[in-house]
Amino acid sequence: MPPTKCDSPRTRILWGMSSAIPLNVGITRSASTGNADSAKRVLLAEPRGYCAGVDRAVETVEKTLEKHGAPVYVRKEIVHNRHVVETLRERGVIFVDETDEVPRGAVVVFSAHGVSPMVHESAAERSLHTIDATCPLVTKVHQEAKRFARDDFDILLIGHEGHEEVEGTAGEAPEHVQLVDGPESVGNVTVRDENKVIWLSQTTLSVDETMETVKKLRERFPNLQDPPSDDICYATSNRQTAVKAMAPECDLVIVVGSRNSSNSVRLVEVALSAGARASYLIDYARELDLAWLEGVRTVGVTSGASVPEILVEGVLELLAEHGFGEVQPVTTANETLVFSLPRELRAAR
Ligand code: SF4
Predict the structure, then answer these.
(1) How far is residue 242 CA from its own chain's centroid?
(2) Pairing mode, if any, of strands 26-27 and 279-282?
(3) In terms of Cα–Cα distance, which of 30, 34, 50 is closest to 42?
(4) Beta bridge partners of 240
(5) Ramachandran assignment for 185, one of left (phi > 0), alpha (psi -120 to 50 degrees), beta (any other)
(6) Closest ligand 1 atom to Cα of 136
(7) Which of 50, 54, 61, 337 to mutate to test the pocket of ligand 1 (most atoms within 8 A of CB)?
(8) Which H or E element spans position 241?
(9) Whose CA is nearest to atom 7 of ligand 1?
(10) Please, what is the Cα angle at 67 between 64 and 71, to 5 degrees?
C-alpha cells in the first residue's frame, strides 16, 4: 500500500489567523546556521508520540514477559505500530487474532484498544491467565455504553467499522449500539425513541469530523444527548491541535505512524485540512521519498500516539542530512498523565 499522501497545493493560512490555532502556541527558534540551507527548517510538533495509554500497554507486555517468561500471547496488536509489534515479537511475544489460538492456561494480554465481554468469556472458558492492557480512557467509554444501555438508550457510536476499539465498545451492549462511520452514514441511522438517543465515539477520531457527524445527527435527532465527558481522548486531540498549529506554515508534513493506526492517519488528514501542501504517513525514515523534499523549505514532523520517539529521531536525522538541520518546536500542550499498570504488575514498575 502506498504512503497516504496528497500532492495538491492548498490555500495556506497565515500564522495565527486560523481559529483552530490555540492561543498558547509557542515557537522556540533555534539559532540560524548562516549557511545556504538556513532557509530550510523543521517544525516539530509537541506533543507527539506515546500517550499514557500506549506507554502503559507496552510496559504491561514488557513486565509480563519479565514476570512470566516467553512466550507471552497478546490478542491483536498491543498498539497499532509496526516497530513496537516487531520488537516485542523478537522478545518472545506471540500475537494472535483470537483467544482460541492461545494454549489452555497460558498468559494472554488484551491490547490497549479493549475487548468485548465475549472475549473475556471465551478466555475464561479456556482457563487463560488474562492481563488487561485496555487503556483506561477506552474503559471509560465502555462504562458509558453499559450505563446508557441499562437506561435503554439508543447509542450512536461514532467510529470506524472494523476497528478493534469499536468492536470492543459495541460488544458491551450490542443490542443498543449502532455504528455511525462518519457524516455520510448519518442518513442510515434509525432509533426507537428520538428522546432517548446518545452519541459516544471511538477515542482516536478527527475532532472536527466527529463534530460534523454530531451536527448532522442532531439535525435529525434534536434531543440527541452528548456523552458525559469527551470520548476522543486528550492525546488524540492534543496531537491534532499541535498539527493544526504548524500545518499552515508547512510545505510538507511527515507523520510517523502505521497505516492501521487511526490517530496517525487522522494527523495526515488534519495537516492537509489545516493548510499543509502535502502530508505523508511513514513508519520509518527509510520510507521518506527524497523527491518529497524538492522545493520544500518548511517540513512539519509529528507522530501518532503509538510511535516511539526513536522513529521520529530517525526522520529528523535524515532531514538534517538533507539540509533541514534547524528544528523549531511548536508546543501547544504539556502532557504529564501517567496510568498505573494492571494490578498484578504494579510491584514490577
Ligand atoms: S490514544 Fe488515547 S485512548 Fe488510545 S491509548 Fe492513547 S490515551 Fe488511550
Answers:
(1) 14
(2) unpaired
(3) 30
(4) none
(5) alpha
(6) 8
(7) 54
(8) helix 234-246
(9) 53
(10) 60
Instruction: At 186, list the grid cell.
Output: 448519518
For the chain, the maximum distance between any two Cα atoms, rounded to a whole number of angstroms, is 68
Q: CA-CA distance, 250 to 244, in Å (whole number)?
A: 10
For residue 333, what is its C-alpha cell? 500542550
The single residue of 165, 167, 249, 269 carrying the catalytic annotation is 165
Amino acid at 123: A
- What grid cell was written down for 294? 524538492
Residue 299 contacts by C-beta under 8 Å, 6 or more apart in sequence?
40, 41, 42, 43, 250, 251, 252, 253, 254, 293, 319, 324
SS3 140: helix
Q: Please name which of 342, 323, 333 lies closest in space to residue 236, comparing C-alpha atoms.
A: 333
Closest CA to 58 of 91, 96, 11, 104: 91
Amino acid at 97: D
Taking the chain (349 residues) in runs of 10, the rounded mean pLDDT of each run is 34 25 36 58 98 98 97 98 98 97 98 98 98 98 98 98 97 98 97 98 97 98 97 97 98 98 97 98 98 98 98 98 98 97 83
Ligand 1: atom nearest CA of 233 is 2
Closest Cα partner for 193 from 145, 138, 240, 156? 156
Q: How many H-runs (helices) and E-runs (strands) does the chain carry? A: 9, 13
Alpha carbon of 310 to ligand 1 centroid (Å): 19
Task: Return the sign of the alpha-carbon dihedral for residues 67, 73, 75, 81.
Answer: positive
Grid coordinates in use for 235? 492525546
The residue whose CA is least distant from atom 6 of ligand 1 is: 53
Does the pTM of the predicted model rise above 0.85?
A: yes
Ligand 1 neighbours by CB, cut-off 6 Å: 51-54, 112, 135, 137-138, 203-204, 233, 235-236, 263, 305
Ligand 1 probe mutation, 60, 137, 169, 239, most atoms within 8 A of CB: 137
What does the alpha-carbon distance between residue 33 and residue 324 come to, in Å, rounded to a whole number?
11
| Residue that has been written with the C-alpha cell 495509554 in this structure | 53
The pLDDT, as a whole number, for residue 347 is 76
